[in-house]
Amino acid sequence: MNILKIAHCRKQFDGKEVLSDISLTVDEGQVVSIIGPSGSGKSTLLRCATLLETMDGGALRYLGKSAVRDENGRAVYASHAELKEIRTCFGLVFQNFNLFPHYSVLKNITEAPMLIQKRNKAEVYETARDLLKKMGLADREDAYPYQLSGGQQQRVSIARALAMKPKMLFFDEPTSALDPELTGEILKVIRDLAAEHMTMVIVTHEMAFARDVSDHVLFMDGGVIVEQGNPEDIINNPSQERTIQFLSRFN
Hints:
The chain is α/β, with parallel strands linked by helices. It has a domain of 65 residues. The protein contains nine helices and eleven strands. Strands 7-8-9-3-10-11 form a six-stranded mixed sheet, with helices on both faces. Strands 2-1-4-5-6 form a five-stranded antiparallel sheet.
């Protein structure tokens, strides 16, 4: 089953096209990694997919529901109520954690499920504590973000996204703000989620990780998908000159 379908997405900033005719389908349980140089449009694609940025053209669907439809080459968005419902389909983990500094770890995780989803307080707290245990942070629920390492903060932000019970998760370079030692912590959490068949789209610079954990890899450059396919093929044996050039820096 398709969870996400993007068709012919276009996006311009100040007349410069940053996404040009991007199409992508993500099936339930699939892990898709997006790789490419800085400025290639990877994060903009994620922001368009998660409704943080508006598309100029193309279509966007979650679980068959239309968030954006293409009308004569123009992107037309669904109603506010429909978009609110569609937003519950996905969670997003940012590269710089985006935790509320004045909230404890537990409050950071429990606030949105109670406030936005109107879920039962006892059930939300139980879910949050289970997630903290899973993240190896059971003893940190009363801590504040400033008292945590970067790796711990990122694990809290993953727990916060999971607490909303989304159908899929987006990760925008989840390890880029971390030193190499802490990077391993986060990659392990994502590997564990992949083993549980969580549907994920990951923008990453970790090539070996993308190869090992993904079902599908896209290489983007200049706002287009240059090459996509099986992770082994794309990362170990790319066919496009631009992909070969890019990956030679990592090998």
